[in-house]
């Protein structure tokens, strides 16, 4: 960019709204998320010294490894760096984390991400699953007001497992029962309130009791639950003192009293399904991780590398 163009940008900065200024600031920081986060982790250790091994507060600087400050604990004498015992610790190829995050944010497949970041497939797999577990832990703590609930189904998969729990289908075998046989499909129940708080649970067998256990203390009393009328929700609403609005979709009743419907949760499910397609089927044991990752990314304010790193740091602190 030439100087006069640059100068004209600078001269226009004064016209930015407060919101735009903040966005610009975030955009500029996001150019180097890794450095920013590492600086934050470093400075936190300096402000609140703590040995990750014995939690003693007396630590000393102890040389550098690959430009990274090393510390030694006076109490247990062990050495460590700022990222020791954090999920970032074993990701040694630090300079590639940012690229890898970007691949994940774009939903690129394992092999493509590995290729783009110059790492092998095994590392790509390990990194993905380490990062995937993060947003999984940030489900809505409380749902309130009008809450929409519905199920969606994912094909059961033992992809990537060495030992199959059930024999693989032979070519020419009948695909089994039509429809949603519990052997082939894993139900996911999603609840989403109008504040866009979202909670989802992988439930091999959806029953009122299991649903109540899963959602214990997470539903504000006197909330209104909107569903398609599946009988499990009837009992569940009674047990949890919720007003239940049953939509009879099959008979064309999609909205009751203008506000009660399940269109938000259904739209959420279609976005989720569309996004999952790019992974060409995920192993059922990792399904929750993918759901969590989608939930995190579906919230526009989370959709940048900075937020993902911040989420990670928060988890480190818990
Ligand atoms: Zn120590």
Automatic annotation (TrEMBL):
InterPro entries, A to Z: Tnp_ISXO2-like, Transposase_27_IS1
SMART domains: DDE_Tnp_IS1595
Every ISXO2-like transposase domain range: 142-299
PANTHER family: INSERTION ELEMENT IS1 1 PROTEIN INSB-RELATED (PTHR33293), TRANSPOSASE (PTHR33293:SF2)
Record-given protein name: IS1595 family transposase
Organism: Pseudoalteromonas prydzensis
